[in-house]
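Exam review. A common question shows you a sequence with its structure tokens and asks you to describe the fold in words. Practice with the pair below. Do the first one on your own.
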Amino acid sequence: MQTALTNNGTTAPVAALKSLTELNKALGDGLRLQILRLLKSESFGVLELCRIIDMRQSALSHHLKILANANLVSTRREGNSIFYRRAFLSDDDPYRDIKESVFDQVDQLAIAKSAEKKISQIQSERAQQSLSFFNKNADKFHEKQGLIVAHDDYSSVLHDVIDSLGLSDKASVLEVGPGEGLLLTELATKFKKLIALDNSREMLDKSKQAIKQSKYNSVQFVLGDTAVARKQDINSDLIIFDMVLHHISSPAITFKDAAALLNDDGFLLIVDLSTHDQDWVRESCGDLWLGFDESDLNHWANKAGLVAGQSSYLGLRNGFQIQIRVFKKL
């Protein structure tokens, strides 16, 4: 193993010195620190970051490469785009303490008003893209969703997970994005207080019709997203996102909203796709995200003050994988 002489006369592996040099290089630039601040709890594509920072793609890519070489950011491919987020710090990283300290200090910096405005615009554009799809395809949603997964493919496992939570029938349950009401009508057989939240009026009307046909009357319907629910002081013991998170503009913000809506000891239940590379689902099914890594969900939950619990993974015949994840508010 190659070694180099340090100032105190001891030796250190050349690889370790190289990684430390790359780390110091990455942290020795104000713009790169700004990028780390922007990626505190959100992921952005290269072009989105170019808009926020007002920089040419070639110049920004240079800075992102330096951050990636220092293991300060991680990449994720979303179709033809590369998204960046902060790297998760592992226990075996020899410079974890340094990186943690830097992240803590960077997070105390304010984001420029102009950058905040652009971030808000990007998130609004993402949300509008998803909402437009559902408003145009409400009558075809079941058919389009079936291209990936049918509710029956995982419903028995999902209900096993729900039953294992030990909630009473008096528990308050919120389903976000109930779609055509398949799960909602099933939940109505278990719980006496249900809330259906959807930002698409067309899809919410379909849920209402499903509940009406099932002759249940214990469901409150709310038009809007989790931010609207927070303003209405809605609190729940269980919040469910059933194949919905990949349609949401900012999963990180949604986790924080969900944590605020949960009662103490409440549960957040996420049913969604694991990471995949099937880019056709964007146009065909209105997906904003190509599934999620387990580590991404854990990271957003941790930032929101939620603790990861049990999980279940189901492989589908068409190559997709469903993940059912439980997070608890302590």
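Now try the second one, then compare your answer with the model answer below.
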Amino acid sequence: MSCCRQCEGLENVFDDGTAKSDLEAYRREGPAKTTRLLLDHLRGAGVDGLTLLDIGGGVGAIQHELVASGVRATVDVDASRAYLAAARSEAARRGYAERAQYHHGNFVELAPQIEAADIVTLDRVICCFPDMPGMVRHSAERAKRFYGLIYPRDTWYTRTADRIGNAFLSLIRNKYHFFVHPAAEVDALVQRQGLTLRYHRNASFFWQVLVYER
């Protein structure tokens, strides 16, 4: 599957209606449990005065929360225009729009123009892209201090769910596909960029949370 086809599928799945619903849910309930675990670890390590690159940031939950905790500037790269608009509107509502940048498109293609940041986060992102090695390599090399990931656990049941879900998407001619990438391969790629695993938690039946540090 090409990244171009996948990005088109992402735009269709994560559309205006989804973005609106997700933003309303975030305002009511705050970040999802897995996102809270990632945020708690980063806050505990210290984020005051740091910069953030949030890839596939959705409605911007990580950005909004870390700015409130002292992060001084953020960059958001997302393949969904609807999510970028939602993140931007919430940043404006919270009064930090002038400290936030937004880029639309496939991060692997945009990477040469994206500067390094103290913190790089990918919350449920690498599972949305076929080119996992490119996504992980380019994002990890831009992490000056912390690299946070949330992605599916590499188990027989997540792989089974992946196959069933993608079969259904193909049946309804949806261009979006989901990926359960081998955890050992992800870890090896990250460590090749000079990062060391500091935190790992299987946060649910499906998701795991990891933070690496340089």
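Model answer, second protein: The mean pLDDT is 90. Residues 30 and 72 are 21 Å apart (CA to CA). Full marks require stating both points clearly.
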